[in-house]
Design brief:
The complex is a heterodimer of chains A (about 425) and B (about 200).
Chain A (H helix, E strand, L loop, with lengths): L11 H7 L4 H10 L2 E3 L8 H20 L9 H10 L4 H28 L8 H24 L3 H12 L11 H10 L6 H30 L17 E3 H26 L29 H9 L3 H16 L1 H4 L13 H19 L5 H28 L9 H6 L1 H4 L7
Helix pairs in contact in A: 3-5, 3-9, 3-10, 4-5, 5-6, 6-7, 6-9, 6-12, 11-12, 11-14, 11-15, 14-15
Chain B lengths: L9 H6 L2 H28 L5 H4 L4 E4 L8 E6 L2 E7 L2 H9 L23 H4 L7 E5 L22 E4 L6 E3 L4 E3 L11 E5 L2 E4 L1
Antiparallel strand pairs in B: 1-9, 2-3, 3-4, 5-6, 6-7, 8-9
Classes of the chains: A mainly alpha (about 425), B alpha+beta (about 200).
Chain lengths: ~425, ~200
């Protein structure tokens, strides 16, 4: 792909395989000697952490499915049976539930990393867009998985989110209602709905695996970005992936597991909502419907917009707009570190997302609603106005001459026989 | 597509006629596309409500025990049906509302024409003004509004209040404060006797 293959099989079997299905060559070239910029920081370990979390979710999910019953009467009880009776069920289910939170936490850091260091800019546009697609699939998967518990929050989250599609009734009368009944398989959220949610919840993680493979493929064409945003120019700018980054990623995964373990073993329900331990009741809406924490910023955007259809458009648009930022950002500089004006807007955007997350957990009235609207406007203005405009008017700081220079300083960057 | 045999065997030159080949190619591709689309339909339609769901029996409700000022909730097609025995004051409040004060000016009554205006008479049971029968689902995102129990907060208009996103309905079930875009829907129903209704 990005570099000449240096693989030379040393055994007869190795040569035999190499001329038939050269998987060892692929692994050697892409994960063995693959050149990584030598200056990447720990934010570049989140790709490995996310791969690890995806594996955790798939493994725990498959075993949970061996005990789960997708029926209106049995679902909630089967989850409780997993918690109380199934051997190690408590661990598996908590790992899966807490794992979803950890997965999103890592995905958000990974996304903001890409945003800060301009990893979406040429030649990494498709890489970025595949990443946004993965985020979108993760959101859909997490939502469907949460619904399977069939508690009050599960049930009403499904009701509210599927009803979002009924907003299409204001475009074409009847279209939204038809679509919602198609999704439900009935006139309300019920057993057909639960069964298809399980089928799709089981399918989507494997779709994510497929897109992740494409994501890594697209990454390995130009290679990784780095904190300076300066392209790799010479061999001294890089280090081989193994052992330098296999060890670094492995260490980061261990640290991440400590965080995972703290929640998993000491506060497994801290990130959830207690109402989801009440069985689903279609006759009673909980007094306060809130999604899991990782959806709160999007939920705040939905509620900040007073019109039903535009609220849904805002909710979807908050993700969809990310697909376009490779072209919305007009700056030629990748890394925000070298963009003195945009830097402020970037950190304001981070704060805006955190505030939206807080507001999403509060009732939408009074000042909460006001600030929800302010932050929603800023969220979209950041991408649609600030990104194009600041890129044009800003005078960036001077970039280092090379990655090596940024690490070792200018003098040692050009060792030329001791004449310096 | 020159064929050296074409001079001796006319059928071969006929088979190699490029326009004939195009017709076959386009025809075959179109046939495969239509066939593919036809196969797709069962895969999509299987998700729609099936016949057993569509034919869910109608229900009979006895209204006799419901005193004035009380409300009951019954299930029909998996949805809650609000039945309220309204007080004279509640009826008067609803009647005094002018149509241009409403967010949704349509009655949303399955027993009337789609264009019927949202007057109180068009919302309430025919000739039985105290009775209001409607699907108790907020038209915003499908929550169940509060207001059925005596102690519930019923919003500024004395009808129903949706706890999810703050929509408020008046005593005729018409939305008065958004984000809900429409009045709560009235299901098909009829009085089978003086105190009994059949919904569906």
């Amino acid at each position: 792909m990005a570099h000449e293959s240096t693989y030379t099989p040393s055994t007869g079997i190795g040569r035999w395989i190499d001329t038939r299905l050269p998987v060892p060559r692929l692994m050697h070239d892409q994960f063995g000697v693959f050149p990584m910029p030598r200056n990447v920081n720990y934010l570049w370990t989140f790709g490995a952490i996310l791969s690890f979390m995806l594996a955790v979710q798939i493994v725990t999910g498959i075993v949970l499915a061996m005990h789960y019953q997708p029926t209106v009467d049995g679902a909630f009880d089967s989850v409780e049976k997993i918690m109380r009776d199934v051997n190690w069920g408590w661990l598996l289910r908590y790992a899966h539930a807490v794992g979803a939170s950890m997965f999103f936490f890592a995905a958000f850091i990974h996304t903001f990393r890409g945003l800060y260091y301009g990893s979406y800019k040429a030649p990494r546009e498709i890489l970025w867009m595949l990443g946004v697609l993965i985020l979108f699939l993760m959101i859909a998967t997490a939502f469907m998985g949460y619904s399977l518990v069939w508690g009050q929050m599960s049930f009403w989250a499904v009701t509210v989110i599927t009803n979002l599609f009924s907003s299409l009734d204001s475009l074409v009368p009847g279209l939204g209602t038809t679509l919602v009944q198609w999704i439900w398989g009935g006139f309300s959220v019920g057993e057909p709905t639960l069964n298809r949610l399980l089928a799709l919840h089981y399918l989507f993680p494997f779709v994510i695996v497929g897109v992740v493979i494409l994501h890594i493929w697209a990454l390995h064409i130009p290679g990784s970005n780095n904190p300076t945003g300066v392209d790799v120019k010479t061999k001294s700018d890089t280090l081989p992936f193994h052992p330098y980054f296999t060890i670094k990623d492995g260490f980061a995964i261990v640290l991440f597991c400590l965080l995972f373990g703290v929640f998993l073993f000491y506060a497994p329900n801290y990130l959830g909502h207690s109402d989801n331990y009440i069985p689903a009741n279609p006759l009673q809406t909980p007094p306060h419907i809130v999604p899991e924490w990782y959806f709160l910023p999007f939920y705040a955007i939905l509620r900040a917009i007073p019109d039903k259809l535009f609220g849904v458009i805002g909710l979807m648009g908050a993700i969809v707009v990310l697909f376009f930022i490779p072209w919305l950002d007009t700056s030629r500089i990748r890394s925000v570190s070298y963009r003195p004006i945009f830097k402020w807007f970037f950190w304001l955007f981070v704060i805006c997302c955190l505030v939206l997350g807080y507001l999403g957990s509060q009732a939408p009235d009074g000042w909460y609603l006001f600030w929800g609207r302010v932050c929603t406007i800023y969220y979209f203005a950041f991408f649609l106005i600030i990104m194009p405009v600041v890129g044009l008017i800003e005078r960036p700081k001077r970039l280092p001459g090379s990655i090596t220079e940024s690490v070792l300083g200018k003098k040692t960057a050009a060792p030329s026989g001791g004449t310096a | 597509m020159a064929n050296s045999d074409s001079s001796t065997d006319p059928s071969i030159s006929y088979d190699d006629d490029p326009s004939r080949r195009d017709v076959i190619l386009i025809g075959a591709a179109a046939f495969a596309a239509i066939g593919g689309a036809a196969v797709l339909w069962p895969l999509l339609d299987q998700m729609n409500p099936d016949a057993s769901t569509l034919s869910l029996a109608s229900i009979d409700v006895d209204l006799a025990p419901v005193e004035e000022g009380q409300a009951i909730t019954v299930m029909w097609r998996g949805k809650p049906i609000f039945i309220r025995h309204r007080t004279a004051q509640e009826i008067k409040d609803a009647e005094e509302v002018k149509l241009d004060q409403l967010i949704d000016p349509l009655a949303r009554n399955a027993n009337l024409a789609d264009t019927a205006p949202a007057t109180d008479a068009n919302r309430a049971a025919p000739d039985k003004e105290p009775w209001l029968v409607m699907i108790g689902i907020c038209t915003h995102l499908g929550c169940i509004p509060k207001g059925q129990a005596i102690a519930d907060y019923k919003g500024e208009f004395g009808g129903w209040f949706c706890p999810c996103h703050g929509s408020q309905y008046d005593t005729a079930g018409r939305v008065r404060i958004g984000p809900a875009p429409e009045n709560m829907y009235i299901p098909p129903y009829a009085f089978s006797s003086d105190t009994k209704i059949k919904i569906g």
